[in-house]
Automatic annotation (TrEMBL):
Chief site of localization: cytoplasm
Described purpose of this protein according to its UniProt entry: Catalyzes the 2-thiolation of uridine at the wobble position (U34) of tRNA, leading to the formation of s(2)U34.
Domain annotation tRNA-specific 2-thiouridylase MnmA-like central: ranges: 208-273
Organism of provenance: Cellulomonas iranensis
Name the UniProt record assigns to this protein: tRNA-specific 2-thiouridylase MnmA
Binding site for ATP: 6-13, 32, 125
GO molecular function, one term: transferase activity
Stated family: Belongs to the MnmA/TRMU family.
Catalytic machinery residues: 101, 199
Region (Interaction with tRNA): 148-150
Residues flagged as site, Interaction with tRNA: 126, 340
Coiled coil (UniProt feature): none
Catalytic reaction annotation: S-sulfanyl-L-cysteinyl-[protein] + uridine(34) in tRNA + AH2 + ATP = 2-thiouridine(34) in tRNA + L-cysteinyl-[protein] + A + AMP + diphosphate + H(+)
Amino acid sequence: MRVLAAMSGGVDSAVAAARAVDAGHDVVGVHMALSRTPAQERTGSRGCCSIEDASDARRAADVLGIPYYVWDMSERFEQTVVADFLAEYAAGRTPNPCVRCNEHVKFAALLDKALALGFDAVCTGHYARVVDRADGTRELHRASDAAKDQSYVLAVMGPERLARAIFPLGDVTSKAEVRAEAVARGLSVAAKPDSYDICFVADGDTQGFLRRALGEQPGDVVDEGGEVVGRHDGAYAYTVGQRRGLALGRPAADGRPRYVLAVEPVQRRVVVGPAESLDVAHVVGASAVWFADVPAPGTTLTAQVRAHGADVPARVLAADADGVTVDVTGAGLRGVAAGQSLVLYDGTRVLGQATVAATRAPADVVPAPGRTA
């Protein structure tokens, strides 16, 4: 099978490519240049797409003895990931750029180009497992290493693209195992630090990035009663559930901490209040992607709403091809923001994904007939 290996310049993608070679595939390595300033320097674990990363990927390909190319995808990345990131924050939502990158770049633009060039599949260093059933169904599952599992950010790819994806690291037990394998293979990236935070915000200052792109839009910080308790330079710099950096002019009457409850960009307002006001009973998801049949109302499963968050018990209230609403009462979920990704699981299997459109607090939930709230 002809396989295109996406090589970021990190240890995971290098070892994944090596395993694809070991599996007997005809492998070609490609580095996606996503930055419009590729000459930038990588700083520790921050940043991506630097000259250093491209060079590291080339050296790994040389060790593996496979052809290597650099593909410029910066325009696609800028249009579908960075622009979406800015638009979502400007609208008061909280996007996950890794989800959008997997959706629009790695498993859309890259895969489509690979198929057009005659490749059969794309191989990446993501931590996730693919299970092939006897009936030909391919299932996306959590990785064996729960600490590194990336099925959450991959769930947006859908079954058609999963059919053309290979994740050789899905069965490893730890990142230490990957690094040890890289050492054994003579790959110089064995000790290279992982990349954290938002890859295109190299200095880690997300608020500064947003301010430079969107400009200052000063407004009020208000409590639940509408009383002004502070000022801000841009509502876009806040997200539901945030506690730090509120710079409130005065504390709450009861002295307890306050959190962001809502972001209202049109009014240029940020609403703050107590932690319990962040409690979530129902999560409503839109633009659904399903890997299995749409679950019937009453189906019990688990839900994950943050990339590094735990999954929680959930029950389907309504679902169709386009969206889903789940009941997470009793799960202890707080501070779920519109724009986040809602991923549903049956055990380790990914059933589907949707973008959070709204949440309902326990007080907003109408009890069923004959029951009390």
